[in-house]
Design a protein that fits this description.
alpha/beta; globular; Rossmann fold; 8 helices; single chain
């Protein structure tokens, strides 16, 4: 990265479920061909801007991990250390996971779908014995079952993302490292809310596009001095 820019947030490239307009959450689906192209393009954009990173963070979901791999390949930074953490997983969408938005809207209404997607209310939970419940997924076997969600509101995502930022990501930046975080729409909304001081009402309108790097310059107190989106040949400051 440029010497004054020390944080990049990146939502994974388009997933297969994104393409099909399905609720994804913790469902571990891969990138679509478009998503792979978005990830590679993000890497090329970062490289063209002279941006680099010293450590990268990603969720435990393969759409984020694969995006990070493709970005690293485009930037020739495959050697950079990677920290994978459940705290950066997408918001758990409970019983909605795998269902299309149109299907859910036909049953619950468009407004309810909007509230579940953007608001602070939690979607209907998975049954505890549902085979899709994360307690049956071996990647989470070291976590107590009662700490694994059946559904999450955005407030729940904030409660896991913000402490991870404070305890793990922020110390890396304070030590002088340049950081890349590859995660998901709602987890990144939680980080943006924290960094930019956005209200509960305001965060509902924030959209994090797939495959578009958000580049921050943070001061010594980790307050944003600048923020820009790399969305094409030119960077847009927002």
């Amino acid at each position: 990265m440029r010497s004054d820019e020390n944080l990049v947030l990146l939502r994974h490239g388009q997933s297969v479920y994104n393409q099909e307009r399905r609720f994804t959450g913790w469902a571990d689906v891969g990138l679509s061909p478009t998503g792979e192209a978005e990830a590679r393009r993000a890497g090329r954009l970062l490289r063209s801007q002279g941006l680099e990173y010293d450590i990268a963070f990603a969720s435990l979901l393969k759409r984020a991990i694969k995006t990070l791999w493709l970005v690293s390949e485009e930037m020739e930074l495959e050697w950079v250390p990677i920290v994978k953490a459940v705290e950066l997983n997408e918001r758990h969408y409970g019983a909605l996971q795998g269902r299309t938005r149109d299907e859910v809207a036909a049953q619950a209404g468009e407004e309810q779908v909007r509230l579940w997607r953007r608001g602070f209310s939690a979607p209907p939970p998975l049954e505890y014995d549902d085979p899709r419940h994360p307690r049956f997924d071996r990647r989470y076997r070291d976590l107590p079952p009662d700490q694994l969600p059946s559904s999450e509101a955005l407030a729940d995502v904030l409660r896991r993302v913000v402490p991870f930022w404070i305890e793990t990501i922020a110390p890396s930046i304070r030590s002088g490292k340049r950081v890349l975080v590859v995660s998901h729409g709602n987890a990144l909304r939680a980080l943006v809310k924290r960094l930019d001081g956005i209200s509960d009402e305001g965060i509902a309108a924030v959209e994090i596009p797939t495959g578009v790097p958000i580049v921050y310059e943070l001061d010594s107190e980790l307050r944003p001095r600048s923020r820009r989106l790399l969305c094409g040949d030119e960077a847009a400051r927002v």
